[in-house]
Amino acid sequence: MSNELDRPSDGHQSPFQRIRRVNDAGAEFWSSRDFAQILGYTDYRNFEQVIQKARTACSNSNQRVEDHFVDVNEMVTIGSGAARPIATVLMSRYACYLIIQNADPRKQIVAVGQTYFAVQTRRQELTDEAVEGDRRLLLRDELRRHNLKLADAAKDAGVVEPVDYAIFQNHGYAGLYGGLQARDIHQRKGLTKSQQILDHMGSTELAANLFRATQTEEKLRREKITGKARANQTHYEVGRKVRQTIKELGGTMPESLPTAPSIKKLEAKRRKELGDSSQTS
Fold this sequence. Notes:
This protein is α+β, with helices and mostly antiparallel strands. The chain has two domains: 2-104, no CATH class; 131-267, no CATH class. It contains twelve helices and four strands, in the order ααββαααββααααααα. It has helices at 2-6, 15-18, 32-38, 44-60, 65-68, 93-102, 108-157, 162-176, 182-188, 203-222, 228-248, 263-280, and strands spanning 21-22, 28-31, 69-77, 83-91. It has a four-stranded antiparallel sheet. The longest helix is centred in the middle third of the chain and has 50 residues, at 108-157.
């Protein structure tokens, strides 16, 4: 079986692609038993040492090891036709990448694997970046529209002057960002005065702020809140509730999320793509 695996049947498909599996949810994974055969480890106990090194590297990279290495017992058929369980590790693409980095570099197949998983990992990164960009564009647009609705609701509550609305917004930020106001968030995220906070948020942070805005607007209208002080307090309380929910779910606090590149570049790119497609259609 080992020789068969080492020879791609069509001359093009990587042996690592051939042993790739997909579960019912559509997630890809690799079996450590298959992987050991591909890499030529005749004694699985030697490969277990490689797995342990990869687990350590995963942990040192601040990744959840259990998200990438799953210990299971697989049933295999032995000579008598009976089945017995054997310990196996189901591994993510990232886990396989770490395995390859820690495998015996003298093996030629290891070099093949390093190329395969480096290319595939980068390809996945590019896909993830595109998905994140689309999410940011969608959420930023939604937040623009809902901030207008929030401003109308705040105005009905008595927040009329621009300076009062700035104070109102700071109360919402303070609730969501653990007491930080707009100026503090600018400083923490390394932004200049001309850069808008919302334009430099990733999708997770934008989603939290969208929830803050929509829930504050609804609460102001539903409870017919009037007066600047009550409106400010409402915005703060909603922001704090959103923060508490993030904490209970084990999420990262918004002030600790990374600063994203300006969304204006994504918007300009999208406009150009739409313009090009309209010219060719």
